[in-house]
Design goal:
76% of the residues lie in helices and 0% in strands. It is mainly alpha-helical. It is globular and about 50 Å long. The termini are far apart. The model has no long low-confidence stretch (mean pLDDT 77).
Length: 207
C-alpha cells in the first residue's frame, strides 16, 4: 500500500493547500461543473462499492485510489477560477477517458498482457476490474466528448475529439454491460432529439 498511501497523502496535501490559497486570496470560485460533480460522485460510489466486498484486504488499495482521486478532484475544483481553467480541466478528464477506452479496446485482442489486464470472458474491464464500473466511467465522458467535438473551432481538435468519441462508444460496447449499453442508447437518442429540437440539421448529419 506504500505507493497508494503516498498518492492519497499528496492529494490531501494538495486539497489543504488549495483550501488555504482559496481563503487567503478571497477570490470567487468558478461554479462546479456537472461533469466534475458527476466524477466526484462516481469515485465516491466506487469507494463505497469496494467497502462492501468480501475480500477487504485486496479491496483496500482500490478504495484508497478512488478516495485519493475524489480528493484530488476537489482540490482541482477549488483552483478553477475562469472558464479557460475549466476547459483545461475537462480536457484532461476527457484525455484520461480516451486512454481508458484504448485500454478497453486493446483488452479484446490480448495485447500487451504484461501491463494491461486481460478481459474477463471477452468483457473489457479497463483498469477498474469490473465491466459495469468501466461502462459507468465512460458514459460520464461521452456527452463531454461530443460537446467538445461540435464546439471545436479547429480541424485538429475536431478530429481528436471525434476519435475519442468513437473510442468511448466502442469501449462501452466491448464491456458488454447491459446497463451500459442501454444508457448508451438513451444518451445517443437524447443527443439526437436535442439537435432536432434546436434544428441543428448540420450537426445531425455530422453525428
Amino acid at each position: 500500500y506504500e505507493s497508494t498511501t503516498l498518492i492519497v497523502s499528496l492529494s490531501l496535501a494538495f486539497l489543504l493547500s488549495s483550501l488555504i490559497s482559496f481563503r487567503t486570496q478571497n477570490t470567487e470560485r468558478y461554479p462546479l461543473s456537472p461533469i466534475s460533480f458527476s466524477l466526484i460522485l462516481f469515485l465516491g460510489w466506487a469507494v463505497l462499492g469496494y467497502f462492501y466486498t468480501v475480500d477487504q484486504d485486496n479491496s483496500m488499495t482500490a478504495i484508497l485510489k478512488h478516495f485519493g482521486g475524489a480528493i484530488l478532484l476537489l482540490g482541482l475544483s477549488l483552483n478553477i477560477k475562469e472558464e479557460e481553467h475549466l476547459q483545461r480541466f475537462l480536457g484532461v478528464a476527457l484525455f484520461c477517458a480516451g486512454l481508458m477506452s484504448v485500454i478497453a479496446v486493446v483488452q479484446q485482442f490480448d495485447a500487451f498482457s504484461a501491463i494491461i489486464p486481460k478481459a474477463t470472458a471477452y468483457m473489457s474491464t479497463g483498469l477498474y476490474g469490473h465491466k459495469n464500473v468501466l461502462a459507468t466511467y465512460l458514459l460520464l465522458h461521452l456527452p463531454l466528448a461530443i460537446y467538445f467535438y461540435f464546439s471545436s473551432q479547429t480541424r485538429n481538435k475536431k478530429f481528436f475529439t471525434g476519435i475519442l468519441s468513437i473510442l468511448i462508444v466502442v469501449a462501452i460496447i466491448f464491456t458488454r454491460s447491459r446497463g451500459g449499453l442501454i444508457v448508451l442508447g438513451i444518451q445517443l437518442l437524447c443527443i439526437l432529439v436535442y439537435f432536432i429540437r434546436m434544428r441543428e440539421h448540420a450537426k445531425i448529419r455530422d453525428f
